[in-house]
Amino acid sequence: MTLWQSRLSSPPADALLAFTESLSFDQKLWRFDIQGSRAHVLGLTRAKLLTHDESVVLLEALDTVYGELESSSFVFLASDEDIHTAVERRVTELVGDVGAKLHSGRSRNDQIATDLRLYSRSALAEISRGVVEFLSMIADVAEAAGDAVMPGYTHTQRAQPVPIAHYLLAHGWALRRDLDRLLATFTRMDVSPLGAGALAGTTLAIDPEFTAGELGFAAAFLNSFDAVSDRDFVVEILFDVALLGVHLSRFAEEIVMFTTEEFGFFRLDDSYSTGSSMLPQKKNPDIAELARGKTGRYIGNLVSVLVTLKGIPLTYNRDLQEDKEPLFDSVEQMTRELVAFQGMVSTMTFDYERLRQAASSEYLQAIDIAEYLVTNGVPFRRAHGVAAGLVRDSLERRVPLRELVGAHPQLGEEAMSLIEADAAVRRRVASGGASIDSVVAQLKRYRQELHEL
Ligand code: ARG
Is 276 a residue of the active site? Predict the structure, then answer.
C-alpha cells in the first residue's frame, strides 16, 4: 500500500506506479535518507514528540534498515514509490506504531530536499578532491617539463614558441577556477531544508536549527517555500561540472590531436590507451575522446534541469523529481573522468625533440624581429611590415629567414640570434607571458594556492 492510499477510493493503476516511481534511481540516496531521518528523530525527541524509549527504538530500527540496505538484503516492494517510502515502510514493519511516528512534522518535500543536499555536499567534496589531485598532477608534469619548448597555436596555426609548462599551467589555471566555483557552490548550498514540511513548516514544536546542526549544515532555511522548491544547488553543480567538462574537453582535443602521427608531440602510456578490434596497429586515445564526448551529456544535464525548473510554480511539484538523474549522471561521470584523465596525463610522455623542432620554425620568431625593431625606435606598424616582408621573401625565394635578417640594414648580425626558440622564450619579460621566468613564478604561485586550500 502506498503512504497516501487512505485518501483515494481505488488503488493506484500499475501504469501510474510505473510512470511516477523514482525508487529505481533515488535508491542511491538511502544513506542520506537515513541520516536525515536520524536527525529528524532527535529533533522530535527534543520537542518531546517522542519519548526517550521511542527514540531509541526508532534509531535502532533505522540502524537495522541501514544494515539491510548496505548488505543489499533489503527487500523492496512494488508499492515502494521512492527511497523515503521504502525506508519508512520498513521501519514501521520492524517496530509497528513507533515507526508510524517517524514522519511527524515532515513531508517528503523537505525530506527529498534534505537528502539531495546531503548527497550534493558529498558529491561536491568528491569532485573537488578529484580536481585538487588533478591540479597538483599538472604542477608536477609542468615542473618535469622544465624549460622544454613547444609551439603555441592560434587558429591551429603555429604562432609562437612557448615553454611546455606554460601550456600545461594554462589548463591548470582553468581548473583552478573550476575548483573555486565548486567550493562557492558548496558554501551557498550548505543550508538545511529539514523542518519546512510540505511547504509551510509545521505546528509541531520541532526546531529546524537543531536538525541543521545535527546534519552539519551551516544554517537552517529561512523560508519554507524556498526550502522545498529551491534546486539552485543542483543547477550550480551541473554548471560547475559542465564547465569543468568543457575545460577537460579542450585539453582532450589537444591530446587527441597531439598524439596523432601527424603531430607526434605527445605519447600516451599503453595502460591509458586502447586498441582496435580489427586494425592490429591501432593505439587510440579513448579516454580523451570520451572526455570530449561526455561533455555533451554534462551540458545536456544542465539544460535539462534548467528547462524543468523554468515553468514550475512555487512550491513543490512532482516535476522536481526530474532533477535527480541528470545530477547523479554528471556527478558519477565526472568523478570517473577526473581519475582517468589524471592517469592519462600523468603517464603521458612528450617528444621533446619533435616539439622543439616544431617550435623552432624560423617564422615563429617573426614577431621577435618586429619587436627588436620597436626597441630600436621603429614604430610597431612599420616594424611589423618589415618582418612580414622578410617572411614573404623567405618563403618566395626559399632563403632562410635568418640569412635575410642578417643581411637587412636595420637588423644584421645581432638580430640573427633572435631566430631561435629557446632565446625567444627567455626574452619575454612581461609577467604572465610565455617565458621561462614567468613559468617559474607561475608554478610557485600555483603551488602556493594549492597549498593554501
Ligand atoms: N520522489 C519525489 C522526488 O524526488 C519525492 C518527493 C515526493 N513528494 C510528493 N509530495 N509527492 O521529488
Answer: yes
